[in-house]
Amino acid sequence: MYLGLDLGTSGLKGLLVSHDGTPVGEASAHYGVQQPHAGWSEQDPKVWVDALSQVLKNLRIDHAAEFAALRGLSFSGQMHGAVCLDDTGTPLRPCILWNDTRSAQQAAELDRMQGQRDISGNITFPGFTAPKLRWMQDNEPDLFAMVHKVLLPKDYLSFHLTGRYVTDMSDAAGTSWLDVGARRWSKALLAAGNMRLDQMPDLVEGCDVIGTPLPQICAEYGLSPTVQVVAGGADNAVAACGTGTVSQGQGFVSLGTSGVLLAARDSYAPDAATAVHTFCHAIPDRWYQMGVILSATDSMNWLARTLNSTPEQLAELVVRDISGPSHITFLPYLSGERTPHNDADIGGAFIGLRAHSTPADMTQAVMEGVGYALRDCLNALRKTGADLEQLLAIGGGTKSAFWLNSIATILNLDLVLPDKGGFGGALGAARLAMLADGADIKSALARPKIQETIKPTDALISAYDTGYQRFAKLYPSIKEL
User: Fold this and answer.
1) Which residues are catalytic?
2) Would 109 be classed as within a structural domain?
């Protein structure tokens, strides 16, 4: 048995998988995000440890035989978070998360430095790790001076289990400290951010073994002392492993808190000017590129809170079949935007609200706005040479048939739903644990069985293209205002 642990922004999911890749048990635990100031987004790493304890306890109780047969576990983790530890391994402050925009000024300063984009392969976005440490230097100098190690969120859990400071290539690629083409820490990038090589964790591939659990961890969680703790990777890279998206021409769209349109690449082909991310994959000698929007299902969460409803209730207001674009256009820039604008300051907007506009109209507009933003990502990816003919669809937003139909038509691409699409990250992490235990890449990372194919509605492609052109014209106007 193998265990995949998916450390997300709102919770931790654990998935037990048998040796043939079949899911046999799951558990989850939830936690919140602290936003003490506008643009801030933080979590206390302790909530992740508490969630891990709960997930492991529930799996051990509900699936005792399978848990006892565990040979390896691995991680999928939210990217970019800065977990700053002192020399005792204690967090110095709450983790600054991926969707925190406080370090926009520091990110811009780093991005302007000579060689920054050439070495890292990316724009230095405010959500990345390096500008967060520069912000600490500027605003929390006493804490900055005490930083012994900087870990990514999932790596704090592996440190908790094994006592080792380790990260993998895919997560390290989102720090702006990694030479992404060479797959090693860059002394030049570290120096630009006033950081040192000794403050970085050891670098491994996502399918490499970190070690085995500490004795006290085995006693607390009921783990065998021979269980292999495997490095794992960044959430999107590991989701790509879970969906078998590892070779050129393969891609997926993820409707989670953020929205991602990802293409696997067999070689390193960065184009930072497109605001597309070019990162190492979680397996050796592979890379991936993705366009990222910061508010996908988070846009629905916001609308639900505003209307004193729930996302599920709002989704029921729109029918399964689409009939054409809404008279309202929504810009989903509630937390700023990455691809293609690289703009931490831009805000969201409804354009075209009328006296007769209803919650159903606003829900439709939000779903379409996310779809239009994903088309921005698709256009940017195509500029890098990515060629996609269909996309696997994963994430919580795929529960809405209306949303899927809208996105398929807006992108003019088939969307395919895997049988276990809800477990992309957790399944991918379990697959990495299988690779570490000797499984073959081709079989362990096979594409999943397809549950359903969502095709574009041909008669409405032109109408949604017109809707997208209207959407694309609005960003410059809103920015000017």
Assistant:
1) 235
2) yes
